Amino acid sequence: MLDDYQNHLEDEKRQFIANQDKTTSFECEFQVGDKVIFTNEYGVSFNNIHVTGFVKPDEVMYGRFIYLDYSCYWFASMLSSLKRQEPTVLACEDAVKQAKMEHDKYLEENPSKRVLCDDTITPFSGAMKILGFTAVLKNGCSILRKCPDKECGKTSSTLYKKGENQYYACPHCKKIEHIS
Q: Is residue 119's pLDDT more than 60?
């Protein structure tokens, strides 16, 4: 019974989103599908929120005209409460090259350790260390997830920390995504 109700709510949400305008006549830097950081009226920010559509021009109230895919998908947001969130490509290819050279040298000096290394993930992890990131571990293991980049989609995007912030970084496409 609960599943039926949840399916009903999901259907309502899908229908609501399908009926939204997909473009806006207002000056706006965002498009449907863009990933944003939404900050509510209390200053609390939410990452990884997607723009789903726009309010019809004659229905705009209090400057709210952008719909987002979060728990209040039906309540439009103001442009001023949004900031673009994009994965950033690892800017320092030199760090990756340096880490790759160190990795190759290590394997040359320690051929018996070859089974413990990966030619993509291990050098990338070294590059992240060079750039000041620290891998977040749980029970001694890296925390992994699927890369959010649709063109990549590999399952080795790793959780890192730098200062008080956390990031997922993919060793395959070399994109770093700030999550908190």
A: yes
Q: What are phi and psi of 172, to 5 degrees?
A: -85, -50
3-state secondary structure of 115: helix
Q: Helix, strand, or coil here: 134?
A: strand
How far is CA 102 from its chain centroid?
29
Q: What is the pLDDT of residues 34-56, one digit of tens each?
A: 889 899 999 888 887 899 999 99
What b-and-e string marks burial along 142-173, b requiring 16 or more CB atoms within 10 Å of the CB?
A: eeeeebbbeebeeebbbbbeeeeebbbbbbbb
Task: Give the model's pLDDT for residue 90.
Answer: 55
Spatial distance between the Cα atoms of 41 and 22, rounded to a whole number of angstroms: 25
Return the half-sphere exposure (C-beta side, CA atoms, 13 A cut-off) of residue 167. 26
Contact 179, 48 (CB under 8 A): yes
37 and 113 share one domain: no
pLDDT tens, 67-114?
A: 999 889 999 999 999 988 866 655 467 788 888 888 888 888 887 776
**Are 6 and 66 part of one and the same domain?**
yes
Boundary residue ending a domain (63, 84, 105): 84
